[in-house]
Amino acid sequence: MEEFETPKPPHTNYINAEYGLKSWLLTRDHKRIALLYLGAISFYFFIGSLYAMAIRLELLTPQADLVQSSTYNKMFTQHGIIMVFFFLIPAIPATLGNFLVPMMIGAKDLAFPRINLLSWYIYMVGGLITIYALLAGGVDTGWTFYVPYSTTFSNSYVIATGVGIFISGFSSILTGLNFIVTIHTMRAPGMTWFRLPLFIWAHYATSLIMILGTPVVAVTILLVALERLAHIGIFDPAAGGDPILFQHLFWFYSHPAVYIMVLPAMGVVSELIANFSRKNIFGYKFIAFSSLAIAVFGFLVWGHHLFVSGQSVYAGMIFSFLSFAVAIPSAIKVFNWTATLYKGSISYDTPMLYALGFIGLFTIGGMTGLFLASLATDVHLSDTYFIVAHFHYIMVGGTLLAYLGGLHYWWPKISGRMYPEGWGRFSALVVFVGFNLTFSPQFVLGYMGMPRRYHTYPADMVSWQVLHVLSTAGASILGVGLLIPLCYLVWSMRYGPIAAANPWNLPGLEWQTASPPPTENFLTTPVVTTEAYQFAAPEHKEVVGKFERQKPAGT
Amino acid sequence: MICLEAGYRPPLNRKRTTLTEGLTHEPTTHRALQHHFENMEQQREAGTLGMWVFLVTELMFFGGLFLAYTIYRYQYPAAFATASNHLDIRLGGVNTVVLIVSSFTMAMAVFSTQLGRRRNSVIYLLLTIVLGMTFLGIKAVEYHDKYVDSLIPGQLIPGRPFNPAVAKPGDTDPHKLHLVEGANVRNVELFYWIYFAMTGLHALHMIIGIGLLIVLTIMAGRGRFGPEYHAPVEISGLYWHFVDIIWIFLFPLLYLLGRHLEGHLG
After folding, report:
1. Is the Cβ pair A234, B194 closer than 8 Å?
2. Inter-chain contact A230–B10, Cβ cutoff 8 Å?
3. Is residue A10 part of a domain?
4. How many CB pairs under 8 A join A and B?
5. Is A8 exposed, middle or buried (0-12, 13-18, 19+ CB in 10 A)?
6. Quick check: B9 pLDDT over 60?
7. Which tens digits make up the pLDDT trace of A99-139?
8. Which residue of chain B has the CA closest to A533?
9. Which superfamily does CATH assign the domain made up of B53-264 to?
10. Which of A253, A464, A530, B129 measures 20 to 30 Å from A439, CA to CA?
């Protein structure tokens, strides 16, 4: 490895174009802003992970031996708030999306570079206010802020946390706005809608949810904060208000927010599967439109969070049906990815390992979601560890794995250096094993009746403790699996072998420029003449019936 | 698959036909053109679309409150009519006219800027600012009236909790609440909560809009706009009209709701 080492990539690029803290904090380059986000998101992820570790440690034994129940309430609340609002929602769009959306469509930057930088500052201000609330005394309402507990009874820092989330919501709105406008108006000549990489389609759908959903939760949290201040409000039954209205408004955003987390992940996986199978993606248009379908249907299923909240049974039936319906576009994607693998030249590089892990874990997460979408089953499973396992399969098994896969895949482009492939594959496997060991026992626990948000359980339930011990052991393995990439990615920024412009030898637009790219992304505006994922040169293609395929070798 | 040669020319039916030369812009580059756009047309298109997308967001932001209004209006029609009748329809009506006229002056400001009539565009922008401030002034008077009648919900104002006087049959004191049959005072409080949340948010948007207009007036006065570059005025105009439209919905929902029930007053 030593012989590859040179002090710096020789060409001028976005990293070495300017120096100094000021050049980073005042940058308007989408690539630098993506790195600012990457640093901030890693920080919040680390804090959220600390809470997760404390939770898993407490659950090792049936008694309360690490923390009291009030502290435990704050731990799971803060784990949820940090992970959902400050890691999962911005994770892929604000880092990989910010870096790649302009590059993949052949633009010099996002449409509004200053607003892009502003969104990072808004995110940081919101995040720091939330951190302040955690340090000042924490918040114990659960990340869902259900009224009337959050408005009337909780003695914790609900207003400060609410303000933090309210503010950070605008960063998400501005990112979504920027993506939509950029994709509409900044595509390179020849980059038609159906030549866009599926990563772009996924981010377009995500942005739609961001701009339509986030303002609703913003106004809802604002109303909760005001209700705490005024001691009365529209959710207060004393004035004739309806606490269930809060749940409707909250989940109208927070269910689609799940798709804000997973749609960009699906975009990453579409890229990885096609490119590491070296094959045109199967069913391009179906994958593209299924992203939009998920965004649209995602807005119509929020009521499945209210099955046991006293919602009308007829509303429950409709929401149950629609929740089943939203599984269809998700399944379309899974089938298309699998079909893409068929007869592909698959290489098991680190990003591909993450992508394959995603397909399996997302399928389990999605299928268990259907158990919860069934009215009768949900009565049994609601508020148990089954739900905890289900959404961690989507959020960790789905979003986190795709995020790590994407980070490895584009790392040469982002940093100009290669990561160590052996360590990469090893840690991908450790993450996969650790993840499954952590969360699959929780399905069983939930089925057996262990409720979520409790820090003790009956001491005579030996099987429960065995499952909890397995889960904690898995979490430790998962933790190690996440620390390894942190170490070698930081290491590779300085000591990794210099990456070629196109180390994976792929046709995507972002690979047709230097690594790391110059500030303007492309020295000349690219002109696009074919669809995405075209691996064979035209002279090696033949048309059979209605289909185009690669000519067999030797013809 | 991707041609990076500088000399390549895409088919003629595309908008940006002649602009594939990458870093080098057309020789007649406007000084307001940002580096990442190919030309002024693309920049204007992006800005306008950006504002429309933002307005969609705003619509959803107010949407949560409109939903709350609809639900409680359906649940407590009598209390809502009572509370609505207590609002000052004259001040509300005048404010509606003020805002509609301000939309007209805003449209004229955009028109003048497009034609490059610098003096006119400054005058129209100033008129719009004055009308916007008039609206806020009248709104402040209304808020004060509610404060005097102890109609600010909950304990938002310390020492002045929601505690309106209720009129007995035959009492015509306009400062008292005249309950429509079946109305509960606690539900009246709910109406005022929604009233203050919605008009308060609307007023906040007006203040932001006036701030934008002040910046635009200074820019227009310095001659920054002309026939080639007027997008900021147009885009701010979109925002201003949107804030007006919100009021056009708020006025009937909040002020005109219970007028037909006035006759039933004891």
Report:
1. yes
2. no
3. no
4. 164
5. exposed
6. no
7. 999 999 999 999 999 999 999 999 999 999 999 999 999 99
8. B1
9. Cytochrome c oxidase, subunit III, four-helix bundle (1.20.120.80)
10. A253
